[in-house]
Amino acid sequence: MSIVILFSLAVMSLALCLAFARLFRGPSLPDRVVALELFSSILVGIIGVVAIATDVAILLDVAIVMALMAFMATIGFARFLERGGPRDD
Amino acid sequence: MTEVLTAAGLLTGSTFMLLAALGVVRLPDLLTRLHATTKAATLGVSLIMLSVAVHFAETAVVARALGIILFLMLTAPVAAHIIGRAGYFVGARLWDGTVKDELRPHYDPLTHRLRSGREEDDEPPAAPPHRD
């Protein structure tokens, strides 16, 4: 079981690194927002895996808050872009 | 049995997340990247949360895990739609191989007005141009 947990944590860390590459490179701001959203999804998954690994069920509350904050951040970025983002054409 | 189910959920969930990250890195434009993250990452988180529910098997934990899954399935399409809309307004470039953009000839990105091309058939209402 611990091997499975380690493997899935490693795979999700690799996914975090790839998402960070897009966040770093991303040609425009919406691409970076997409990468941030993926970041938060992967973090929710990592929190779930850590909850299994440590047998601490309270960590799920952290995952709930994480998902909620990510949704709010996405909505905020989208509003910001629609209001006054620089046009790219 | 629960061990096997938990392990299978963790492995497939993390694999789907890796697929989502690969899609974000490899796909060519904003809309295809959205398509990669919003579905694959939601499926990955859902599988991991299901395996959390199977592992703990208590009522409170199962309710929380299902709540996370429900919340993600409700918010991921909304967030993807809003980001795609904002990206279109900002003028994000489409992929070179895009076959058709049906919105472009009808839509004015500066005034945010969408016209059907049949406005002269009936009496045009004298609506002042407004910007949302």
Salient structural properties:
A: 89 residues, mainly alpha, flat, B: 132 residues, two-stranded antiparallel sheet, 3 helices, elongated
Description:
The complex is a heterodimer of chains A (89) and B (132). Chain A has 89 residues and is mostly helical. Chain A contains three helices and no strands. Chain A has one domain (2-84). Chain A is 85% helix and 0% strand. The longest helix of chain A is centred in the middle third of the chain and has 26 residues, at 29-54. The termini of chain A are far apart. Chain B is mostly helical. Chain B has one domain (2-113). In chain B, 64% of the residues lie in helices and 3% in strands. Chain B has three helices and two strands. In chain B, helix 1 packs antiparallel against helix 2 (30-56) and helix 2 packs antiparallel against helix 3. The N and C termini of chain B lie far apart (55 Å). The interface between A and B is large, with 54 and 54 residues.
List the helices and strands and how they pair.
The complex is a heterodimer of chains A (89) and B (132).
Chain A: H1 2-25, H2 29-54, H3 59-84
Helix pairs in contact in A: 1-2, 2-3
Chain B: H1 2-26, H2 30-56, H3 59-90, E1 107-108, E2 113-114
Antiparallel strand pairs in B: 1-2
Summary, kept brief:
Chain A is mainly α and 89 residues long. Chain A is built from 3 helices and no strands.
**How many domains comprise the coordinates of chain B?**
1
Low-confidence stretches of chain B: none
Mean pLDDT of chain B: 86
Domain module tally of chain A: 1
Amino- and carboxy-terminal Cα gap of chain B = 55 Å
Largest interface: A-B, 54 and 54 residues
Q: What Rg of chain A, in angstroms, do the CA atoms define? A: 16 Å
Q: What general outline of chain A do the C-alpha atoms trace?
A: flat
Q: What best-fitting shape of chain B do the alpha-carbon axes yield? A: elongated
The overall average pLDDT of chain A, rounded, is 89
Taking the sheet with the most strands of chain B, its summary is: 2 strands, antiparallel
Topology order of chain A in helix (H) and strand (E) letters: HHH
Strand proportion of chain A = under 5%
Instruction: Report the helical percentage of chain A.
Output: over 70%
* Secondary structure category of chain A: mainly alpha
Structural class of chain B: mainly alpha
